[in-house]
Design a protein that fits this description.
Elements lengths: L29 H12 L2 E2 H4 L5 H6 L4 E4 L3 E2 L9 E2 L9 H12 L3 E6 L10 H14 L4 E5 L7 H8 L5 E3 L9 H4 L5 H14 L4 E8 L5 H13 L4 E6 L16 H13 L4 E5 L8 H15 L1
Helix pairs in contact: 1-4, 4-5, 5-6, 6-8
């Protein structure tokens, strides 16, 4: 695959999207229904806070990725639109409000993420577990995917989340190792890998997942090495999507990957042994997460 990076100063704010990045908006009134339920719950969504380009599509299907513990993050990543500011204490009734929203929307596969809470003694692990259990009790038929920050790879925090029995433990490495210090200055590429390794060590049966953004100036070889690194810590599910610069203050985009390049990267990931792969210009870590999980479950059932 030929790599043709443009100037690192090129920005999505300085040029138009390529044709393959343009798509019609979904029609129908379910987006407003989802917004009403989300707003009533008082629980933030990464859909809104991170300026996700899939918001209209997902909300029209009555799905949302809930972001617990507020909408202010203790970290300042150069790709993320979530506000960096001192957060408020977690709200004790948030687990119940979240569970009610999931029930009202009749969501079959729930994705629960959170801002980084480096200010809390357990970095929010206990609140994560409380939210997970509340959803499980309210909607026992739903499958649940958690997407926490790295929790500084503290084993006791990871155990707390795992003991609440998520169906999928998702933690994104986001970018290749060379770019990680610039793009995620308060995180660590190796620490993120360690999170996934610890989950597998503690719960070998728990499905682990991670995600990569492309278009930040990485090479194809670096992407493939990141895939190798993920497989070495037992990661089984991978998402690969195009980075889109949320504001002029964020990291500039180096280039747009073509659909055929995403297909080639996805094929390579499957060759490496990932049992679930989603790759494409608008793919995000939680985009179509339910469909990916159901595909894996059916595949595993067929092999049993």
């Amino acid at each position: 695959m030929r790599q043709t990076n443009s100037s690192p100063q090129t920005s999505t704010f300085q040029r138009r999207l390529p044709p393959w990045m343009k798509r019609p908006l979904p029609v129908g009134g379910l987006t407003a229904v989802t917004k009403q339920v989300v707003d009533s719950s008082g629980v933030a969504t990464v859909c809104q806070q991170a300026h996700c380009p899939n918001l209209t599509e997902c909300w029209s299907h009555k799905t949302a990725t809930f972001m617990i513990m507020g909408d202010r993050c203790t970290r300042r990543c150069r790709f993320c639109a979530v506000q960096n500011a001192p957060p408020a204490p977690p709200e004790s009734d948030e687990p119940a409000r979240l569970a009610q929203a999931v029930a009202d929307l009749r969501i079959k596969h729930v994705v629960i993420t959170a801002v980084a809470r480096d200010d809390l003694p357990d970095e929010g692990a206990g609140h994560f577990a409380a939210c997970l259990r509340a959803v499980r009790n309210k909607v026992p038929s739903a499958t649940i995917e958690v997407l926490p920050a790295d929790l500084h790879a503290r084993p006791e925090c990871i155990v707390t989340v795992c003991d609440a029995e998520p169906d999928v433990f998702n933690h994104n490495i986001e970018t290749v190792e060379r770019l990680a210090p610039e793009i995620r200055p308060q995180a660590s590429y190796q620490r993120s890998l360690e999170v996934l390794r610890l989950v597998k060590e503690y719960r070998p049966d728990m499905l682990t997942k991670s995600g990569l953004m492309v278009g930040l100036g990485e090479t194809i070889e670096e992407i493939q090495q990141a895939m190798v690194d993920l497989r070495q810590v037992g990661c089984e599910v991978l998402t690969i999507g195009q980075y889109l610069q949320p504001t002029p203050k964020h990291a500039p985009i180096a280039r747009f990957y073509r659909p055929d390049e995403f297909e080639a990267l996805s094929d390579k990931a499957r060759e490496m042994g990932f049992i679930g792969v989603a790759g494409g210009p608008y793919v995000r870590s939680s985009y179509n997460a339910g469909e990916v999980f159901e595909h894996i479950r059916q595949k595993c059932s067929a092999k049993a």
